[in-house]
C-alpha cells in the first residue's frame, strides 16, 4: 500500500502541479505555441516549395528536393536540432544575440518541411491528369493551371496528413530545450521538467503532458472531421434534383434521394 | 472558322496513332468523327488545339497553321468538351465558368459573373450557379462544361465523346444542346458514338480506323452507301 501511495504522489501530487501551473500558463504554453506556430508556417511554405521542386520537369530541381527530403526525414529530430541550434549558434549570436529560438524554429521548420513537402507532393500528384488537360484546353498557362486548379485540389486531399504533421511539430518543439533556454524562454516540457527536478516527483511533468494533450487531441479530432467532410464532399453522389425547371428533353433527375445516398459509400 | 488537317502523323513511342490524317471542315460546318476505339479519334482532336503536337503534318485554322501560334492564345479560340466533363470539383459551377474569363479575358468579377450566368442560362443551369459540380447529374455537369467552353466565345468547338459517360436518359439533353449549337453556325469537330446524331446534325461524317481516314462524306453517303468493307463492318456492329 505504501508503494502505491508513493506512486500516486509521484504522478498526482496536486500541490506540485499547483505550483507549476502559473508558469506553465504564462510562460510555457505561449512559448510552445509560438515555436509550433512559427515552425508550422515556415515549414508549410518550405514544404510547398519542396513539393513544387519535386514535381518540376527539370532534374536540377527534382534531385536537390529528393536529397533534402531524404536527409531531413532520415535524421533524428534531436540530431538536426542540435546540429543547427548549436552549430550555427555563433552566427545567431552575431545576428540577434543569445536567443536560441530563431535557430530552434529554423531546425523544426526544416524537419517539418521534409515531411510536409512529401505530403503535398503526393496530394498534387494524385490529381487526375485530365484536370490539367481541361485547364490547359481553356487557354490557361501551365503555371496558372497548377496554381488555380491542380494545387488547390491536391492540397485539399492531404489536409488530414498535413494536420498530423502539425501535431508532430507541437510535440517535437519540446526538443529545443537542448539549446539551453533562459527562464523566460522555457516551453511546456522544460518547465515541467524543472519543477519535477525541484519537487522530486513527476507531477509537474505530467501536468505538462496534459497541456500537450489539450492541444493535440482536439487537433486529431479536427483531422478526422476534416477527413470526413472532404470525403463526403468529394464522393458525394448527386443530390436528388427533381426541381430542375428546364427539364431538357429526355434529361431526368439522376436518381432518388435514397439511392443517391447509397452511392456515397460505393 | 474553318479547320483543316494535312497529313497529320503522331506516334506514342512505337505505336502509330495517327498515320496521315487529311481533313477539311468548312466554316460553320459540323464534322462527326466516328470509328472503333483506338482508331485515333480523341488524339486527332487534341492535335487541333495542340494539347498534343503532331510528329509530322499541319493543322490549319482559316488557312493559318496552328503550329505557328501561341498554344494558349490558340486554345482561347477553340472550346473543348470532354467525355468525363472535367469540371473543377473544388469550385462552384459559376467559378468553373468565370475562371478563364477572369484569368484570360481579364474581365472584372461582375462582368465575368454576368457573362457566365447568361451562358449558364442558355444551358438551363443558371439556378445551379452556386453548387459544386459533384452535386449535379452527369448530364448537368456536361452542360456546365459546354457553358464553360462557350463563355470564352470560341470560334471552333471540339467534342470528345461528350455523351459516352452519361446514363442513357441524360444523353438527349446534351445532344440537343450540341445540335442547337451546330444550327447556330458554330464550326464543330465531334467525336461520337451517337450515329443518330451524326446522321441528323453532321455536314460531314469522317470514318477513322487505325489512324487513317478510311471514308469521309455527307452522312447519307457514309451511312447508306459505305464504299469500304471496314466501314460497312463497323456500321453493322454499331447500328
TrEMBL record, chain A:
The chain crosses the membrane at residues 33-55, 75-95, 101-120, 166-184, 204-226. Keywords: Amino-acid transport, Cell membrane, Membrane, Transmembrane, Transmembrane helix, Transport. Pfam families: BPD_transp_1. The keyword Kinase does not apply. PROSITE patterns: ABC_TM1. Signal peptide: none annotated. Residues 29-223 form the ABC transmembrane type-1 domain. It is a multi-pass membrane protein. Belongs to the binding-protein-dependent transport system permease family. HisMQ subfamily. This is ABC transmembrane type-1 domain-containing protein.
TrEMBL record, chain B:
It is a peripheral membrane protein. Its main location: membrane. One of its GO terms (molecular function) is ATP binding. Pfam families: ABC_tran. It is found in: Cell membrane. It comes from the Bacteria. Keywords: Amino-acid transport, ATP-binding, Cell membrane, Membrane, Nucleotide-binding, Transport. Residues 3-235 form the ABC transporter domain. Belongs to the ABC transporter superfamily. This is ABC transporter ATP-binding protein. The lineage of its organism: Bacteria, Bacillati, Actinomycetota, Actinomycetes, Micromonosporales.
Amino acid at each position: 500500500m505504501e508503494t502505491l501511495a508513493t506512486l500516486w504522489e509521484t504522478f498526482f501530487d496536486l500541490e506540485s502541479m499547483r505550483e507549476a501551473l502559473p508558469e506553465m500558463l504564462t510562460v510555457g504554453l505561449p512559448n510552445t505555441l509560438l515555436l509550433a506556430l512559427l515552425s508550422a508556417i515556415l515549414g508549410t511554405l518550405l514544404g510547398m516549395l519542396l513539393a513544387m521542386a519535386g514535381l518540376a520537369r527539370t532534374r536540377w530541381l527534382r534531385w536537390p528536393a529528393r536529397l533534402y527530403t531524404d536527409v531531413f526525414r532520415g535524421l533524428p529530430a534531436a540530431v538536426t536540432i542540435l546540429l543547427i541550434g548549436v552549430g550555427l549558434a555563433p552566427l545567431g549570436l552575431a545576428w540577434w544575440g543569445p536567443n536560441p529560438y530563431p535557430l530552434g524554429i529554423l531546425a523544426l521548420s526544416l524537419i517539418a518541411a521534409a515531411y510536409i513537402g512529401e505530403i503535398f507532393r503526393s496530394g498534387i500528384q494524385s490529381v487526375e491528369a485530365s484536370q490539367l488537360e481541361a485547364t490547359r484546353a481553356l487557354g490557361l498557362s501551365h503555371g496558372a493551371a497548377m496554381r488555380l486548379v491542380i494545387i488547390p485540389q491536391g492540397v485539399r486531399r492531404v489536409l488530414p496528413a498535413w494536420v498530423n504533421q502539425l501535431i508532430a511539430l507541437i510535440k517535437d518543439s519540446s526538443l529545443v530545450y537542448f539549446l539551453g533556454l533562459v527562464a523566460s524562454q522555457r516551453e511546456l516540457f522544460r518547465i515541467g521538467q524543472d519543477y519535477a527536478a525541484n519537487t522530486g516527483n513527476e507531477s509537474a511533468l505530467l501536468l505538462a503532458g496534459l497541456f500537450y494533450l489539450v492541444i493535440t487531441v482536439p487537433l486529431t479530432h479536427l483531422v478526422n472531421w476534416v477527413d470526413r467532410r472532404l470525403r463526403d464532399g468529394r464522393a458525394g453522389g448527386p443530390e436528388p434534383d427533381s426541381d430542375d425547371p428546364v427539364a431538357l428533353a429526355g434529361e431526368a433527375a439522376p436518381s432518388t434521394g435514397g439511392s443517391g445516398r447509397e452511392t456515397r459509400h460505393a | 472558322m474553318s479547320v483543316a488537317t494535312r497529313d497529320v502523323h503522331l506516334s506514342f513511342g512505337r505505336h502509330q496513332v495517327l498515320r496521315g490524317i487529311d481533313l477539311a471542315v468548312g466554316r460553320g460546318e459540323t464534322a462527326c468523327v466516328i470509328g472503333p476505339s483506338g482508331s485515333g479519334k480523341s488524339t486527332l482532336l487534341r492535335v487541333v488545339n495542340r494539347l498534343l503536337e503532331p510528329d509530322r503534318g499541319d493543322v490549319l485554322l482559316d488557312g493559318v497553321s496552328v503550329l505557328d501560334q501561341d498554344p494558349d492564345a490558340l486554345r482561347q479560340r477553340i472550346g473543348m468538351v470532354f467525355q468525363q466533363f472535367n469540371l473543377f470539383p473544388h469550385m462552384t459551377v459559376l467559378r468553373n465558368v468565370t475562371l478563364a474569363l477572369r484569368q484570360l479575358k481579364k474581365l472584372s468579377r461582375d462582368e465575368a459573373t454576368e457573362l457566365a450566368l447568361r451562358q449558364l442560362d442558355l444551358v438551363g443551369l443558371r439556378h445551379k450557379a452556386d453548387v459544386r459540380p459533384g452535386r449535379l447529374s452527369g448530364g448537368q455537369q456536361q452542360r456546365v462544361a459546354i457553358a464553360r467552353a462557350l463563355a470564352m466565345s470560341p470560334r471552333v468547338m471540339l467534342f470528345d465523346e461528350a455523351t459516352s459517360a452519361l446514363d442513357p436518359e441524360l444523353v438527349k439533353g446534351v445532344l440537343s444542346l450540341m445540335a442547337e449549337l451546330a444550327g447556330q453556325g458554330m464550326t464543330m469537330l465531334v467525336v461520337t458514338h451517337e450515329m443518330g446524331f451524326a446522321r441528323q446534325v453532321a455536314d460531314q461524317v469522317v470514318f477513322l480506323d487505325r489512324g487513317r481516314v478510311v471514308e469521309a462524306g455527307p452522312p447519307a453517303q457514309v451511312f447508306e452507301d459505305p464504299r469500304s468493307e471496314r466501314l460497312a463492318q463497323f456500321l453493322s456492329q454499331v447500328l
